[in-house]
Amino acid sequence: MTNVIYDFGTWGWNWWVPITPHIGGGVGAVHVNETASINSFTLRNPIGFPINPSSPLSVAPQTFGGTLINGSGWRFGYQAIAGLRFEFSPSVAFDIDYRYLGTPDQTLTNNARFPFPNGTGGTNCCANTHFTSSYHSNNLLASITMKFGVPPAPPPPLPPAPPPPPLQKVFLVFFDWDKYNITAEGEKIIELAAQQYKAGGSVRIQVNGYTDTTGSFAYNQRLSERRANAVATRLAALGVARSDMAVSGRSYNDLRVPTPLGVREPQNRRVEILFPQ
Questions:
Q1: Cis-peptide, bond into residue 61, ω within 30° of zero
Q2: CA 222 to CA 9: how far, in whole Å?
Q3: Does 88 have pLDDT greater than 60?
Q4: Is 58 helix (H, G, I), strand (E, B) or coil?
Q5: β-strand pairing of 205-209 with 245-249
Q6: Cα 105–chain centre separation
Q7: 105: number of Cβ within 10 Å
Q8: Any residues with CB less than 8 A from the CB of 239 and at least 6 apart, and which?
Q9: Are the CB atoms for 190 and 270 separated by under 8 Å?
Q10: How many Cβ atoms are within 10 Å of 29's Cβ, its own excluded?
């Protein structure tokens, strides 16, 4: 089968969970082998009156049984596909698909004897006749996808950033790749932001999370929200009122350093704490 899959996630759908739906279809060739058999049985007495030697059932005793229908052939096949992909990480995903496979009707040559195959009393007729059949199946397919390859070498660690001046209005908290836990350097930045909040009184601040471009948009949306919530939780513990924070995740929108997809850029893995002008 040759299949075409339309993946909705590749067009920037903003799902709140890392699930990507897809649909598809396919065409190809299907080899169908059809066989039917009957168990052996013995006719002890002739059937019919008067007895007619030309009738198979008038010869007894005799034994019947074996392959009744046997035919095979290639035919055109078509397939419909619908499924979901759940991304555990940028390199591992779980897929579950529904697949329907069908064929049109086809006339096959019967290579077996019927209606009384392998009769011992001389009854062995009707080979090389024809019958018509089609094939249809409904299947559920589960799979795990792993993306292999050597990942790019991690960039050298950034030098410690100098503390921002007291009047700075934007505070940046950086994160390790595919992580949302706050580093020691990030903790210092959050403490400075909390001090700025207390010095300026009760103000409305924005806490926006971002990611780099590795992985799907949906997976990074979830990761950016976790980063923003981690910073907001720490700010609240330092005395910033939760009601004074607008918390959101932006996936890899608004890159600080523009890069193509699949690039691990440390400057893009961040949370921005924005104070009003």
A1: yes
A2: 14
A3: yes
A4: helix
A5: parallel
A6: 32
A7: 9
A8: 194, 197, 198
A9: no
A10: 11
